[in-house]
Design goal:
mainly alpha; 12 helices
């Protein structure tokens, strides 16, 4: 057994012990790649939550949980002779050095735009190399390998960024606003119909959200982060409304919308003060 000092080797030893078919943990032993993906997503979100809450004590723990996911996958890979932790580390080292020629080589990249363009070019080369390795003769899509399980807002932003890299994008942000206005009108038209077509309405609402994501991207903002922050702000303010409702001695059903809106405005004023 390794000593008590914390190290990657100790963590790998713990993982190997947990996966021992005879003496390991029954839960860990029965897991496979697919069965732990939900836990990986959960741990990643908990890391983000700790950062947003600026709870750095909790962040230390959550980062450990996320690291354990990498160790778990590496152990599974090693058992099936697919890859191991050392190969995972080697792969990311090679990728980071190759994608940063302005740091590790003689290439001169000085602006954010140049750095991002180089990053996308390197990713395109990786997709092409993967196609060659697989003997795939089908033309490779610019949108290839975008994860299907990404949150929808992040996925939309990544799709748009890939298209922009090959020139399929507006140069003027006013064109983006015009597209949003166009999509708003189309949503209104669907809602104004005598019989609302839910499928058509849903499609137009989706187009509107996609257009708003494009606006966020052109404004150099991350839509997933913005909506999460908006959710947190609304939740905090609504808690303030709930407090005022409770202090009034009446429940929500005994308030009209105008009264609740007054509470909402009072919460906003309190925030500013």
């Amino acid at each position: 057994m390794l000593n008590s000092n914390a190290s990657i080797e100790k963590l790998r030893w713990i993982m190997t012990t947990l996966r021992d078919p005879e003496t390991g943990c029954p839960w860990d032993v029965k897991q496979d790649f697919a069965s732990i993906t939900a836990h990986t997503l959960e741990e990643a979100y908990e890391v983000v939550d700790a950062i947003e809450q600026q709870d750095f004590v909790e962040l230390e723990k959550e980062l450990g949980d996320l690291l354990f996911q990498v160790i778990f996958y590496s152990q599974l890979g090693q058992e099936q002779q697919l890859f191991d932790f050392d190969k995972v580390v080697a792969a990311i080292c090679e990728k980071l050095i190759r994608r940063h020629p302005h740091v590790f080589a003689d290439t001169s990249l000085t602006t954010d735009a140049e750095i991002k363009a180089n990053w996308e070019n390197e990713k395109a080369k990786e997709r092409a190399a993967k196609k060659t390795q697989e003997n795939n003769v089908t033309p490779i899509s610019v949108l290839a390998d975008i994860p299907k399980n990404l949150p929808a807002l992040s996925q939309a932003a990544k799709i748009q960024k890939r298209c922009s890299h090959v020139g399929f994008d507006w140069d003027d942000i006013n064109d983006v606003f015009a597209k949003i206005e166009e999509e708003v009108l189309e949503v209104k038209e669907e809602l104004a119909a005598k019989e609302i077509n839910k499928a058509a309405l849903g499609e137009e609402l989706g187009d509107l959200m996609f257009a708003v994501v494009n606006l966020c991207r052109h404004a150099k903002q991350d839509p997933e982060t913005l909506l999460r922050q908006a959710n947190q702000k609304f939740t905090k303010r609504f808690h303030g409304v709930e407090t005022q409702v409770n202090e009034s001695g009446r429940d929500f059903s005994q308030h009209n919308l105008e009264q609740l809106e007054q509470y909402w405005q009072q919460v906003k004023i309190q925030e500013k003060s």
